[in-house]
Specification:
The structure is a single chain. With about 260 residues, this protein is an alpha/beta fold. About 20% of the residues lie in helices and about 30% in strands. The strands form 2 sheets. Strands 1, 2, 3, 4, 5, 12, 13 and 14 form an 8-stranded mixed β-sheet that branches. α4 links the parallel β7 and β8. The two termini are about 30 Å apart. The protein binds fe (ii) ion (FE2) (2 copies). The site of one fe (ii) ion (FE2) has 6 residues, from loops.
């Protein structure tokens, strides 16, 4: 089974790119299952139900989130209506939504875990205290996919190696900068520290660059606006998994620029 993971989709550029190109990419890479990180899909922060519905018209099978999950407050009212939508599992139990889900595709049970890092994300508890319980919940799955939404490369690598041989893939999100360290770990788990961002290329993590530069120069915060100008980039990775063993055969990084 081939899985396409899409790095943080930012604002209108990211959404438009998925609507225009995802079907083509799915065919080109012969993909069976698609996971997209949509924590920045609406105005760069969070996800409205309207945008989610629109993006679910594309071949997306599961959706992961991150520290911006609740950036659009309305998500609290609809998050439990979408079985394919997960937010970091290490939120307190009272928080709406769930951190794991199971999706059956072509007779294969795919488990998806979204988990947050803790380093530089101090409001979250350590992923290492939550991940075993999530694995337990998904023990009947043929394939387990983990989106580790985290800042620190050390924490991401540590969780990757901790999960090596226990899950099919551990992919990183959140930094919006793609790393070139994709590999299959010795135990058969596909790994990449960060998938990168699907959104405006000439921006700072998706935001208009002038706003961020000015913030560094003047210390005066201004409202973040998503850069709308092209070129736009599509970032992600395709992982090929042997569904009988759950082990990854390969991982291929994708970084496409659309003028
Ligand atoms: Fe993000
Ligand atoms: Fe994030």
């Amino acid at each position: 089974m081939k899985i396409l993971f899409i790095g943080d989709v930012v604002g209108r550029p990211g959404r438009k790119l998925l609507l225009q190109e995802l079907e083509n990419l799915k065919n080109e890479y012969d993909v069976d299952f698609v996971n997209a990180n949509l924590e920045n899909a609406s105005h760069g922060r969070g996800l409205t139900e309207k945008n989610l519905k629109q993006l679910l018209q594309t071949p997306i099978d599961s959706v992961t989130m991150g520290n911006h999950t609740f950036g659009q407050k309305e998500i609290e009212t609809y998050i439990d209506n979408y079985p394919q939508l997960v937010r970091p599992v290490n939120y307190p139990k009272v928080v709406p939504g769930k951190g794991t889900t199971v999706i059956e595709k072509d007779g294969i049970k795919v488990g998806v875990i979204n988990i947050s890092g803790q380093i530089y994300m101090n409001e979250m508890d350590s992923p290492f205290l939550f991940i075993d319980e999530s694995l337990d919940e998904l023990k009947d799955c043929d394939i387990i996919l983990v989106d580790h939404h985290a800042e620190a490369t050390s924490e991401k690598l540590a969780l990757g190696h901790y999960l090596d041989g226990k899950v099919s893939a551990v992919v990183g999100t959140h930094t919006h900068v793609q790393t070139a360290d994709e590999k299959v770990l010795p135990g058969g788990t596909a790994y990449i520290t960060d998938l990168g961002m699907t959104g405006p290329e000439n921006s700072i993590l998706g935001v208009e660059k002038e706003i961020i530069i000015n913030k560094f120069l003047t210390r005066q915060p201004r409202r973040f606006e998503v850069e709308l100008k092209k070129p736009w980039q599509f970032n992600g990775a395709v992982v090929d998994i042997d569904e009988t063993t759950g082990k990854a055969r390969s991982i291929e990084r994708i970084n496409r620029i659309y003028e």
